[in-house]
Amino acid sequence: MGRVQVGSWWRRGLAVSWLLLVAAVVLGAPAAAEAGDPPFDPGGEWVLVSSREDPTTDPAPECGTASEWAWEAGEQGLTLYVVPCEDRDPASGMWEWLAVAGDVVPGASEHDELVLWDGGRVVRAWIAEQGAEVQLAVLTTTCGGAGRDACVSAGEPVAEAAIAALPGGAAGVNTPGFTVESIGLSLVVPVVIIAIVVAPVRLARALARPRFASSSSADRYHDVTPVVSRARWRRRVRRLLWWVVAGLVFIGLTAVTTRDPSLAGGALVLALLPLILVLVGRWTFLRPHPVERGRRSVTGLGAEAALGTTLSVLAVALAVLVLLVHVLLFAYAGMFPGWPSLTGGDLERMDLPLLAGLRPLLRSMGSDAALVSVLAALPLLVGAAAVDALGQRLRTASLDDALAQDDRPHYLYLRSFDEDRLTLTAHLRRRGLVSALSMMRRVRFEEVMVRQLSATGPVIAIAPPGSSLPPIGAARASFSNDEWQQHVTRYAETARAVVLSATPGEIRPGYGWELDLIANRIGHQRVLVVLGPWPLTSLRRRWVQFCQTVAPVPFFAPITMPWVPDGVHLLAHSPRSGWHAWGATRRLDWTYAVALDEATRAYLPDWS
CATH 3.30.200: does it fit domain 47-165? Predict the structure, then answer.
């Protein structure tokens, strides 16, 4: 009896099974469905060579199965691709998803259709709409070796016949996704909301801001109001020009993305004029005032300052990422209608920046992606601003750090501790994310003063006993009740000038001791007296209280005389020049900065 070849039978059986399976798949596979009769006749010379239905468009929620017909006439080819949709937006979205290559042919459209040229072929796209029937039509003509203009002209009769045959005529194809309009809208909408909500509040606050008398018969008083007014108008013009440049560049770059070279080139060329104007103007008629320039600053040393820098960097990065995602979500939210899928191949074909990671997020948000992105961005931006504020405070220099890093003579800032919370509107400059993202634009008065004085020396101050994390502003050190006076005396004697606040809430013993120190016990008499931007009633009460306290003191008596008007911001003194004062009709960060700039320029030779 022969040996049974089990392995051989097994292999034969497996081969037969595979053959039967392949035969079943091949014989059972449905043939590609034909599209039926074409909707128009291109002419006697054209021969219909194929027609088919394209089911790849079926997954689109608001579009159906596409139909395609192809004709030939010698070396020329003609293809009509039609997709039925429920509305114009899905039809435009389907066109966007198809991502047909080509450059726009200006002036070639006769019926608002989009005309593209792609090296040997002309593509015409339009939306035919009649009642509830909406169709996206794409007509492609290949012309062999003919040039663009010849190919466009040769295809015009066929295009006329196709547009006339489809119901509803032709309407332009919109691109609701990544376009100049959509990206611009994502940026304009928040600005409009801020303008509606914030602008009236700011206008009311500006109108309610008190005006002060800022004129004096004495030549020792200097009104900085005209200087500030000119500087602010020059800055507004510069900023307007920069916004125009940024807007035109933005339009140009977005036009490159949307394959519109004529718009891109025109926008970038137009951007050159305001750019040249603002660059030339910065050195001539639009020259910035010195208070607008950057100032030398010192930061803390050690691990705490390094942690603060890290937190600020992370906060800024988070804010930039949140804003970028918001803009992209707002732009891509309009891409839902008419998109059957978005695979990796689609992304590569459509050249959509950063959409690969955002598409799942978009799908989860649904049709309200733009609104949801705003609601989600707000708490994230608030959190980033809070982290940045903490980082700034952590890297604030201590008194020892400031003196170690800046060897110039220092300013000693003496004030009542209740003035540490004094703020004013930030027109000139903002600090960090909190100020940049805040709609109310507030800045601490001490920051305004310290930033300007830092141009000529570090500013130091004594912190309240027991304070831990210092605010942003002057470099601080905290001393016990038994030793703070000896340290204040030492720092006052070696200061370039002693900066004294003249608007404390009340004259306490410690403040009275500081007044006596300045008037009677330091020999240099280099003093800068500053009035804080308190509300009108409070400011007058505080200034009258100060004047009544120092009037009997010969050193301070001159500044209590009538030659000092209500608008005074600060008064400076040196043994050679005596007292001079600077002020303005409004109390703004601009007016204080300009007054400090003029005072330090005038007195720096004496204070050196």
Answer: yes
